[in-house]
Predict the 3D structure of the following.
Amino acid sequence: MSIRAKSEKGFSLIELLVVVAIIGVLAAVGVVGYQGYIDSTKKSVTDANAKAVHQWLINTKTVRAAGIDTDPDECDATTLVPSTTAAEAVSASGCFGALALPGNPFESFKNAYQTSRTGADAIRAVATETVVADDSTTDCSDVDSNLVNGDVVIAVSGPGAKQLDVYFCSKVGDDDEKLTRRDSTITNF
């Protein structure tokens, strides 16, 4: 009588566990990489929004200097005059406060981090004399307590919008809600 070994087919428990562990490690690496990609994309979109606002301000300054009417009307040379205070310029009826209201240039802008924040919530104009460091260490709340990651800020200072700076609020390293300056200061708007 001979004893024959039974031919076993399939994988052992150890082999299955090794495969599951490898899949788990790959998934963990993929999720971390994907989250970094998403964060980078959100910051890029926010920077692009800030760039669009900055470029609009430069273009509008040129149009105003040529005596051409602007959109919104609140930014016309006859409305935004040297005696206009920064607080008046950023109010809802002022040039910069009106930019993101319905019917105006930036009404459809969305905050890349919180897409429910659109228009006037995502693009904010503030009258400020606060000095913002160029190294992205200033908290967004130092300029406006309502700012969150993804918001674009037009900082107006001086009478008649003497100086305009465009910032965006975003994550810098591990720190949330830090202001980053976009391009150069616009003077004598």
About this structure: The first strand starts at residue 123 and ends at 127. The first helix runs from residue 13 to 65. The chain has a mean pLDDT of 87.
